[in-house]
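Observation: inputs received (chain + NAP).
Thought: call the complex predictor directly.
Action: predict_structure
Action Input:
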Amino acid sequence: MIDLTGKVFIVTGGNSGIGLGMAEGIVMAGGSVVVWGRREEKNAEAVAQLKSLGGQATGHACDVSSEEQVIAAMQASVEDFGRLDGLFANAGRAGFGTKFIDTPLDEWRAVMAVNLDGVFLTLREAAKVMVEQGEGGSLVAVSSTSAVHGAANNEAYGTAKTAVNGLVRALAVALARHKIRVNSLLPGWTITDLATNAYESDVFREVTTKRTPARRWADPAEFREVGAFLADPSQTFHTGQEVCVDGGYTIF
Ligand SMILES: NC(=O)c1ccc[n+]([C@@H]2O[C@H](COP(=O)([O-])OP(=O)(O)OC[C@H]3O[C@@H](n4cnc5c(N)ncnc54)[C@H](OP(=O)(O)O)[C@@H]3O)[C@@H](O)[C@H]2O)c1
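Observation:
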């Protein structure tokens, strides 16, 4: 049903996990994807995977916390396909797990640099291109159920994800006149590299599995369809929303 033929989307952190799942969904719907991540070899693997699904894909090494790198990667990405129809600000890092009263400022800033500054920088640069292009499009920021539920020893992560939701609401208003939709995605517990430590802790995995009505963690491939949905230009009235894909975690 969703046809993304001729449309081009950047997925930051698209070389792994949830980002790769959404990138797969975009190419399976006919779109093209530019993958951003710091590790060139992981980017190349993801590009090969996306091409094996019949899509067009390229990759660029970029640390989203660096303004200089984001600006350079945006220019290179637009040159790849000659247009931009959206960006998924998905790149993120885990927190340090430090008790709040022991949290040093540099740990706080390291989480904010990727999970908040990185989202700001990538959405800003994408919006510049899309406003100039004048054809609208879709911006998506990957938040978390951590923006809804409090979690001890994870304050910086939860704060960044909550701020991302605020940024998305503000941008949905600011960019509506340009026909650019802006939504956030709140994944629940998903088996990815970022969450490996949590998943491998028997106690934590059992508690979070019981706490999730679906009684399991998600597989990244389960984000294919929502990736294509959020990219879909025919969703012309869907903006400013938090889309939860969490097995029912936040309503239980
Ligand atoms: N897994 C979960 O349970 C869960 C739940 C809620 C929300 N999320 C969110 O989902 C998003 C994707 O995470 P994931 O779980 O799929 O983890 P993942 O498989 O570890 O993927 C993280 C991605 O982000 C990239 N990345 C990390 N730091 C970066 C930086 N500074 N600049 C550019 N790219 C960077 C990584 O690539 P490089 O290392 O090559 O840079 C990788 O592609 C994150 O925003 C995360 O907070 C995850």
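Thought: report the result.
Final Answer: The mean pLDDT is 98. The pocket of NAP is lined by residues 12-13, 15-19, 36-39, 42, 62-65, 90-93, 114, 118, 142, 144, 187, 189-190, 192-195 (CB under 6 Å).
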